[in-house]
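Support request from a user on the community tier.

User writes: "When I paste my C-alpha cells into the form, the page sometimes reloads and wipes my input. The last time it worked, I copied everything first. Here is what I submitted, just in case something in the input itself triggers the reload:"
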C-alpha cells in the first residue's frame, strides 16, 4: 500500500502533464515529459521508456509513475521461414486496454496467490487529460545494481540448476531471501497460471527494490 501523501503527490505531478491520448514510443515522449515536469519536480528525476510504457523516476521518492503507450504487441510468424516477429498495433475495441493495466492485473494475481514478495506493489493512480497513470514501488534495474548482489555460495550452486532468463546471481539472491521451495512453487504457479509473467525477463525488467530485495517490476510480458 502507498501512503496517502504519496498518492496525493503523484496525482499532483501528473496533473501538470498534457500528453496525447494516443501516446506512443516514437513521440519523443521522454523529452516531452521531462520538459513538462521540470518546473514542478524538486530534485533530480528522469524519464525512461521501453516498447510499451514510459516511467517517471524521481530520485527522492519511493515510487515510480508508469504511463502506458496506446496499443499492444502481437507475435506473428513468417509463413515461409516460421520465424516469430512482433508488431505494435493500436488499441481497438477488441483490445482496448494497455500494458500497465495488464501488469496491474498480473501483479494483483501474484499478490493474491501469496507471491507478492516477488513484485513491487502497484496501483492505478488516476486518469488525467485522457491518459491513464499507474504508481508502483521503486526498484533498480538489474543492469544498474548487479554489483550490489551478494548471494551465498550455496545459493549460487543451486541457481545453476535453473535455465530461466534471470542472471544466476539474482536467482541465488531469491533463494537466500525466500528459500528454494517458495521460488520453485512460484515458478510452477506462474508457468501454469500466468506464463507471460516470466516471458520478458531481460535486464531492464527485474532487479532489486530499495531494500535490496530481488523483485520483478515489469511482468506485463507480451499480449497473450
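"...and here is what came back when it finally went through:"
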Amino acid at each position: 500500500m502507498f501512503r496517502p501523501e504519496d498518492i496525493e503527490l503523484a496525482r499532483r505531478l501528473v496533473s501538470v502533464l498534457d500528453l496525447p491520448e494516443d501516446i506512443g514510443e516514437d513521440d519523443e515522449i521522454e523529452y516531452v515529459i521531462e520538459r513538462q515536469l521540470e518546473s514542478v519536480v524538486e530534485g533530480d528525476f528522469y524519464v525512461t521508456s521501453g516498447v510499451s510504457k514510459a516511467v517517471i523516476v524521481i530520485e527522492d521518492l519511493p515510487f515510480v509513475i508508469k504511463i502506458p503507450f496506446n496499443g499492444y504487441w502481437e507475435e506473428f510468424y513468417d509463413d515461409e521461414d516460421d520465424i516469430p516477429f512482433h508488431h505494435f498495433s493500436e488499441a481497438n475495441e477488441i483490445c482496448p486496454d494497455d500494458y500497465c493495466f495488464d501488469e496491474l492485473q498480473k501483479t494483483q494475481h501474484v499478490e493474491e496467490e501469496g507471491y507478492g514478495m516477488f513484485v513491487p506493489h502497484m496501483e492505478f493512480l488516476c486518469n488525467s487529460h485522457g491518459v491513464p497513470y499507474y504508481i508502483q514501488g521503486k526498484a533498480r534495474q538489474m543492469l544498474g545494481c548487479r554489483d550490489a548482489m551478494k548471494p551465498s555460495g550455496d545459493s549460487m550452486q543451486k541457481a545453476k540448476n535453473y535455465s530461466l532468463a534471470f542472471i544466476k546471481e539474482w536467482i541465488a539472491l531469491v533463494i537466500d531471501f525466500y528459500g528454494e521451495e517458495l521460488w520453485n512453487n512460484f515458478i510452477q504457479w506462474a508457468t501454469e497460471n500466468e506464463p507471460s509473467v516470466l516471458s520478458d525477463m531481460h535486464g531492464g525488467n527485474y532487479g532489486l527494490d530499495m531494500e535490496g530485495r530481488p523483485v520483478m517490476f515489469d511482468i506485463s510480458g507480451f499480449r497473450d
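Agent notes: The reload is a front-end session timeout and is unrelated to the input. Residues 4-216 form one domain. Helices lie at 4-14, 29-37, 99-112, 142-145, 153-159, 168-178, 180-193. Escalated to web team.
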